[in-house]
Design brief:
The complex is a heterodimer of chains A (294) and B (327). Chain A is of the alpha/beta class and 294 residues long. Chain A is 40% helix and 18% strand. The radius of gyration of chain A is 20 Å and the shape is globular. Chain B is of the alpha/beta class and 327 residues long. Chain B has helices at 3-14, 21-29, 36-46, 53-65, 78-89, 111-117, 139-151, 163-167, 171-184, 208-220, 239-256, 271-285, 301-315; strands at 67-70, 103-107, 124-129, 156-160, 195-199, 225-227, 261-263, 297-299. Chain B has an eight-stranded parallel β-sheet. In chain B, helix 3 (36-46) packs across helix 11 (239-256). The model of chain B has no long low-confidence stretch (mean pLDDT 95). The chains are: A alpha/beta (294), B alpha/beta (327). Chains A and B meet through helix 1 of A and loops of B.
Chain lengths: 294, 327
């Protein structure tokens, strides 16, 4: 018997909940490739959704950054487990979103899950690698330790819908930051499913907030928002990203530029094993002096 | 107004020769009953108005000017009160066009500190009195508490009614206490009397009918303001309860010609909420009430959110908690 098609209209992921866009808008998402096919409707977020997401992210900073590094590692590893459990769904979505064959998509999804697990191992090692006992000319210990910067706004890569997405979210939250992510405009389905994964794992509400919609409409609000501490422009390759950087500078945000320069900006090769730079970009360094010999 | 003149005015209004508890009960029970569903529906409908651009800017400034900036903690220190007063005088140091708040509200023993800190400004000092927040003390203690605050220079006194007596049906006792505290707010000679705000603590009154009765009883006894809550009990100020009290002051003016103010307090934290209350004031009581003289917000964190919204309107970018002073 033929089944009635179940057409999906997805929502946003903000503060651990799945609200509709405040604007009530949604847009059609189609598959990539020669003959685009309707995949689902995605919520078309507005500036007020960005505002709400930043409020949720700010509220989650204290608990997430205050959790022990070991605990954060466990929580992130649990996300890796849930990702693995939904591997087939992600393969189908990545294949449809990026116009790939199943073996190609499988390679990218496996790399994405491995990437997440790789980052899950980092929380309790960052301080050893990036912290330091500084030599000083006096009877003091002088210790530098990395601390999260706070709320990070992330423009997710436009092309790599899962591997790229994971590669920008994970390094930001590893150290205790919380993120507001603007998902890939044309390929948001893996991001939406990642939101469902995060909601059903142990990640506290508000640590990751995912807004779907038009990147060009949402990015300026994220860049100018005074309660956002850092901005990842990786997904802004098609936008005048220098203007976004200038806007972010008004409130002294840390900014990660897209790879490449100016109009030559492009997405990096996400299959390359990352270094520490993306984690390092969203850290502050706290240095304390402590008298010796007591 | 002395207790006797309050009593005689009440006798006249009720049309009785002696103001007994029975007469008060008959009068209060003669007030129309509250339609709960209708009331909550009306409050919810008024909360859906959209206030934008110029109107929003006006409403935010008006709301800031109506705030009783409040700190009522056991841990209040003179330093905390002084910093609160500094914020009351200059809410946003990055924008000197920001209006000042209406008053600073503190416990009675800190009135002197607040008065000193606010010397030379137009900001009033309000003190909570009469065994705030429970109100469980004998009348002489409540009166001493009130006089203490008035002598220290309080411009306004926020008293709590005896909810126990009210719920037990002892309306005459509640009336007498309010009238006596009102008298204790008086200053000799030409010095202005302290304004009396009567806190009904609606969260403990159980029904909307009781809120209406308590509002009328307080106005009958000489309240200058009726106030929803202490902020120590949940639920504190809600839209329906405030709507009911706005109706009461509107009807009181119809009856007597005198205006009484309304102050929702507790639980109003966002600009959106504050704007909804202003819509309600305008729609229910009328625009005459849209001034700090007749409408106040009892709040502390509300000011911060109003300032953030004000900065958003001014700069076009969303602001953050790092850009406003902490209390």
């Amino acid at each position: 018997m033929p089944r009635l098609e179940v057409r999906k209209t997805y929502k946003l992921y903000i503060g651990g909940k799945f609200p509709r866009s405040e604007s009530g808008r949604s847009y059609e998402v189609s598959s990539a490739g020669r003959s685009p096919k309707f995949l689902a409707n995605a919520a078309q977020g507005s500036r007020k959704d960005i505002r709400d997401a930043v409020v949720a992210a700010r509220g989650a900073v204290k608990g997430w950054s205050g959790a022990t590094a070991y605990n954060r590692g466990q929580v992130l590893y649990r996300v890796g487990e849930v990702l693995e459990g939904r591997r087939d769904q992600f393969i189908a979505e990545v294949a449809a979103s990026e116009g790939l064959t199943k073996p190609q998509a499988t390679k990218l999804v496996d790399a994405a899950i491995d990437r997440w697990v790789w980052y899950a191992g980092w929380p309790d090692k960052l301080a050893q690698v990036l912290g330091n006992l500084n030599p000083v000319a006096g009877p003091y210990f002088d210790i530098s330790a990395p601390e999260p910067t706070g709320v990070v706004g992330v423009l997710a890569p436009q092309d790599s819908s899962l591997l790229g997405l994971v590669s920008v979210i994970a390094p930001a939250i590893v150290s205790g930051n919380t993120v507001v992510v603007v998902a890939s405009e044309d390929r948001p389905l893996p991001a939406i499913s990642l939101g469902e994964v995060l909601a059903t794992s142990d990640v506290p509400a508000g640590v990751v907030n995912i807004v779907t919609g038009r990147t060009a409409e949402l990015a300026p609000w994220l860049a100018s928002h005074a309660d956002v501490n850092a901005l990842d422009l990786t997904g802004a390759t098609e936008l005048p990203w220098a203007e976004l950087e200038a806007s972010a500078a008004e409130t002294l945000k840390r900014v990660v530029r897209p790879a490449g320069d100016g109009s030559g900006a492009e997405e990096p090769d996400w299959l390359v094993t990352p270094d520490l730079s993306r984690m390092h970009a969203f850290l502050e360094t706290k240095t304390v002096w402590h008298p010796k010999g007591m | 107004m002395s207790p006797t003149s309050a009593t005689s005015q009440a006798r006249e209004l009720l049309g009785v020769s002696s103001l007994t508890n029975k007469a008060l009960r008959t009068w209060l029970y003669g007030l129309p009953g509250v339609d709960q569903v209708g009331l909550e529906g009306r409050a919810a409908a008024l909360a859906t108005r959209s206030i934008k651009t110029d109107s929003k800017a006006w409403a935010i400034d008006t709301a800031i000017g109506m705030i009783d900036l409040t700190t009522l903690e056991g841990a209040d220190t003179p330093g905390k009160v002084r910093s609160l007063c500094a914020k009351a005088e200059l809410p946003d140091p990055t924008d000197l066009s920001t209006p000042q708040v209406a008053a600073v509200c503190v416990y009675g023993d800190l009135v002197g500190v607040a008065k000193d800190a606010l010397r030379g400004s137009d900001i009033n000092v309000a003190a909570v009195a009469t065994a705030f927040p429970s109100g469980r003390a004998t009348l002489p203690v409540k009166l001493a508490d009130t006089r203490d605050a008035v002598e220290a220079g309080a411009d306004e006194v926020d008293m709590v009614i005896d909810r126990g007596a009210f719920l037990a049906g002892d309306y005459r006792l509640v009336f007498d206490q309010i009238a006596a505290v009102k008298q204790a707010c008086a200053r000799p000679d030409d010095a202005p009397d302290a304004h009396l705000k009567v806190i009904l603590e609606t969260g403990e009154l159980a029904t909307y009918d009781n809120v209406r009765r308590a509002s009328w009883l307080a106005m009958l006894a000489g309240a200058d303001f009726i106030k929803t809550s202490t902020g120590k009990i949940q639920p504190a100020a809600t839209m329906p309860v405030t709507l009911l009290m706005l109706e009461a002051v509107r009807d009181w003016r119809e009856l007597t010609g005198a205006m009484v103010g309304v102050k929702p307090a507790g639980g109003i934290r966002t600009s959106k909420d504050a704007l909804r209350y202003l819509v309600m004031v305008s729609e229910i009581a009328g625009d005459d009430w849209l001034t700090p003289q007749w409408f106040r917000f009892g709040a502390s964190s509300l000011l911060t959110d109003l300032l953030l919204q004000r900065q958003k309107l001014r700069t076009g970018a969303y602001s953050g908690a790092d850009y406003v002073t902490i209390d």
